[in-house]
Structures are given as C-alpha cells and as structure tokens.
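Hi W.,

Here's what went into the run:
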Amino acid sequence: MTAMTGTAAEKSPSVDDAGNVPAPAAKRARGEFLFFTLRSKKFLISISILLFLALVAIVGPMVDSTDPLAQEMLPMRHPTLDPGNWFGTTYFGEDVFAQFANGLRASFFVGFLGGGLAAIIGMLVGFLAGYRGGWVDEILNMITNVFLVIPTLAVLLVITSYLQARGVMFEAIFIGGTSWPWAARAIRAQTFSLRSRDFIDLAKLSGRPGWKVIIFEIAPNMSSYLFLTYILLFGGAILIAASLDFIGLGPTGGMSLGLMMYSAVTWAALQLGIWWWFVPPGVGIIATVGALYVMNVGLDEIFNPKLREM
Amino acid sequence: MRRYFGRKLFTYLLTFFVAATIDWLIPRFMPGDPITVLVSKTNTLSPTAAKAMADYYTQLFGFNQPMPMQYLNFWTSLFHGNLGLSLYGNGTPVTTMIMAAVPYTLALLIPAILLSWWAGNSFGALAARRKWLDNTVLPVGYVLTATPYMWLALVLSFLLAFSFRIFPLSGGYGFNLEPTLTWLFFTDLAAHWVLPFLSLFLVMFGGWAIGMRNMIIYELESDYSRYLASLGAPQGLIRKYAFRNAMLPQITGLALQLGVIVAGSLVTEIVFAYPGVGQLVFQAIQNEDYFLLQGIFLFIIVGVLLANFLVDIVYVFVDPRVRVAMRGGTA
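Here's what came out:
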C-alpha cells in the first residue's frame, strides 16, 4: 500500500483532502524505515548488546589499566561480589577482567578489519564477475569456487604456524583474505539479477564507464544486502579468530578471547575447576556473534517487507 | 551428466592443485627458516656442529636443489603417498600417524553432521510460523550457532565430567585400557565419545534449525504456497511442499559449511584430548612439527573435497531440476 502511494506521489505531488502536500517519496520511505527500525525488537535488543560490549571493549582497558598478563604475587582469587574482583584472577594471578576487556577489544578489531577486508574482496570479485559476465566471470567464478571449498582454518593453520611473531593485525588480514568467497558468490548472483534491468541499460547507454555504473547504480540498489553480508562476515571473522587462537596460533604477547580459552585448557583449568577462567571469553563471543546474527535477521525484516510479521 | 560432474571434478582437482602448491610454497617463502628451527631444537652450542647439521638437513629435504626441481620432487613423493617423517613422532611416517587418528575424527564427525542436519532441519521446519515453538527454538538456535565449538566443549566437560562425573573428562579411552575387541573396551570408548559428539552436535543443530526456519518462511510466502492455500489445500500439504524446496539450500549449505565443521571438530578434540586429527594438529603446532602439520593440511583438504563431491552426487538425486537439465531438457 505504502509503495503504491509512494509512486503516485512521485508522478504528481498532489494535494490531499486535508490540504497537506504529501512528503516526497524518499522522505516518507525514510520515515517508514525508521518506524520499522524502532519497532523491531530483534534490532533494538541486539544493538543494545553490541553497544554495551563495544563500550566494555573500548572503555574497559582505559578505566582498568591492569596489564592483562601481569601476575600478582597473591594466591588465586575466586570471583566475588567485591568491587574490582567480579571476575577473579587466573591460576597465575592475572586479572580475568583485564584479559576479558582486552580480548573483547581484539575480537571487535578482528571482526571489523577482517570482516571489512573480506567484504571488500567479496564485492570486488562479485561485482566484476556479475557485471562483466563472459570469461571474466568464468575465471573469477573458478577462483571463488576453489577458495570456497578449501577449509579456511586449515590454510590459516599452515600459514600462521610459520610466523614467529604474530599480531592481531596480521590475523585480521589473513582471515579477511580467506573468508570472502561466499560473499563474492552471493554478490555476484545479486549483480547478475540487476544487470539486465532497464535503468542499468540506460546508464550504459549514457556512456558511463563500467565502474561508475557499478558504484552509482548497482551498489546502492543492494546496499542493504551488502550491509547484511558485512555483518555476517564480521561475526564469522570473530569465530575463526577464536578457533585460531585456541589452537595456539593467537597473537603473541597480546590478549584475545580465544587465547584466554587456550591458556585455560593448557594450564588445566578444567581439571582444577577454575570455571571463571574460560566462561567469560565464551560468553563474550556468544553475546557478540549472537547479537550480530540477530541484528542481521532484524535488519533483514526491516529492509524486506515480505518478512515482516504483522 | 558427464558435463555436470566433469565441471565439478575439474574444480576439485584444481583446488587440490592450488592447496598442494600453497602447502609447498609456505615453508619456502615465509619469513623464518624451518631448518634453523630444527637445528636450534637440538641445543648444539658448537657452530661447526650446527653448520654440519644444517647442511645435512638441507641435503635431506632437497633445499639445495633448484626450485622447479623441488616442486617436481614434491609432487612425485605426494603420488607415492609419502608426506615425510614426523619429528614429534620420532620419525614415524606422517601418513601412519594421520591414519591412526582419522577413525576417531570420522567417528565424531559423521554421526554429528548427519544427526544434527536431520534434527536441525526437522525442528526448524516445525518452528517456522508457529509462535510458541518459534519463540523458544529461535533464541536457543542463535545462541548455539554463535557458540565457539571449544567453549561448548569446555562447559559440557566442566558440568558433566568435572562436576557430576557422569562422563570421563578426556582421552579416547581409559588410560588403564589397551585397544582390544572386548566389550569393556567398547563401552569405555563409547563413554569417551559422548561429550565431544554432543558438543559438535549441539552447535551444528542451532545453525541448521535457524536456516531451515528462515527458508520455510520464505517458501510459505511464495506464490505457489499462496496458490495452494487459496485452493483450500490443508496446511500440512503446503508445509510438505515448502519443506522439499527449503531442503535444497540446506544441502548446498552443508557443502559450504564442511570447512567450518572440520575446524570445529579440531578444536573440540583438543578440549577433550580426543586422539583424533585435531589433537594431532595441536601436538604438531606445540612441537613445531611442520611435516606433520603440512601432511594433515593436505589430508583435510582431500577429505573436504571428497565430502563435497559426495554432496554433489546427493544433490542430483534430490533436485529433479538438475536431473532434467542433465538429460538435456530444460526445467
């Protein structure tokens, strides 16, 4: 219904019964978008969780400047309700909260950068293959298929095991460089379906170069889809990084949530019953990635009227 | 038929070629020198001895030959099934060590994949557009699918093995047992298998349930479902058709997820010290045993490629459109 009145308004801005000039379509669409955004419980809950976690990750290490690897020369502390000891300490007297906050920061960093890099590569390959078609598509598709079936973690294992010193930055770049194929394939399919539309033909006829058509005509028409892809890549990068760190190939000299679990297992936290060592990092990852996935669905429902449950 | 499988097979062979080449390239072009690492592990102080040892290893691994020759040698030994000797296993062939670990990993992976796929799809299909079930299955599914495999393994092992002592904490079988064909050994093996299986099963279950639920909603919104409903078809029939259509992306999804699933089983095995491939990877990294690591890498690739091919074959049987297209018709 709203879509129909929208197109009518575009053709001739008419005056309705009450004498009000209807708002231009774009403005109304934005209003509708905002309305459904504020009504979506999925979106509101997930964005609150994510903002809270981001706050902990950014502000946490600033407020509590304890070095996550500093060992206090005291017996291990259980978590208690006393302020400053909610998370307790590890077997070696390292502050679990400091590790958690710093690890969360690393996770967000890897997700942001690794997911971003994967999204950029995926868009480049997907747009190019879908728009150009022909042999460019054949070759890019073959490359995508090859990378799609190679298990990412196995490749990362072999690559990172040879690096003596590893940083979070490197980790993010390697993850971004290997996790793009499914995004490329999805974007290619979307581009393919847009390519034969009239407005694209018109843009081509007007003599615009291909890259301009892609950036100004195709990409804006699937911007919501691209954003959703980025969210999923963000969450995926965090999970891959956690596995990699857990196997013992995490950042050297740094802190991450996967590394916390690695240390916990290596130093027999399980056999000694030190649950507060390995529970927080897992909860942090689940909350972050779970909120991202729920946000993905919430936004999908906002963007796509077909999925809204009335 | 030949064209479809020919294309697939070509992709897989190319993938194997690329993966094997990566495997060959990395030790040669990464910063850091494996031979220096090898020599330094022996704690030799005398520089002449270190020099002699470095020369010996260079000779042994053929690093003194020209690069193209090395690459050719690599493929020759690969075709002979020779992946080198393991340093961690004191000179045991890498292939032997992997072969000893593979049954454990497969015993975890195959039941976990098949059962979670079946259970997840059934639950997801049930939950779609049914308020009460949807409100319970959906949040649980999201939490499970966002859970890192090793964390669920840690928590399950803490609760069921450490606190309540229902299941053994770690290992593939009791330390006091030898692998024999006895009832005692078999029950012990099964008891050790339950927790790693369960953690793999649960994480995967969440993903399949959500995927199926979302697919069914898409299908129930589509024209053919609406048409059926307007004809007065019963809900059960419409759902049956929706399920059949929603199943296809889930099969493709299984193929795409294989890499992630294998990674999940690796980390799960590490938590339980389960004697599979994951534990072997962990030992290889801890002991800087690059031959073992590279061998496992190739092995995982081959396994995932084979599984992909299997999914391709299944897809032909499930999707009538592919079959029709193969006979030269158009669907």
